[in-house]
Amino acid sequence: MRTDIRPGGVFPDYELTDHARTRRRLSDLQGTDPMVLLLSRGHYCPKEHQQHQQLAAHYPEIAVAYTQVVTISTDGILELAEFRDSVGARWTFLSDAGRKVQKDLDIQEYTDPHHDPMVPHTLVLKPGLVIHSVYNGYWYWGRPSVEDLRRDLREVTREIRPDWDLSAPGLREAWDGGDRRGFFPYK
Known about the structure:
The protein is α/β, with parallel strands linked by helices.
């Protein structure tokens, strides 16, 4: 992995084609929300299926918490769409069939020349694609559990949401005075 891809750094704003054949930028998919970004080996890997199925089971909770999830895989569009459907995911999957992300981040899994995947990583990103945490999932136990993600996302949300604690000094006065800038939805 490139040395600048670490907590506090900014993840590149890649533009790739999604499972529905639409070009998408990571920053547009993220908006002003935290994001869980999965850099995936692809449909053929049972470890990827397991991780994605667990996230899919918790996706309603993730979505209600105003958090985005995106998967980037070296799969082509057809395999990507089948992978997404097979794990029951409702978030965007992006294709890196040309290995642009894999090469740029220097994460080619050289131990598998047949599939030529990327070394799987999971990142938690603050708005602006700012990196909060990076997990290397080459071995399954290196991947974050749902509880690891909950902890990371709690820290990120606490940091980025001015109205995290409604008892914080000044919030009630701002609300009563009609100043809603520090309250969701932020303007």
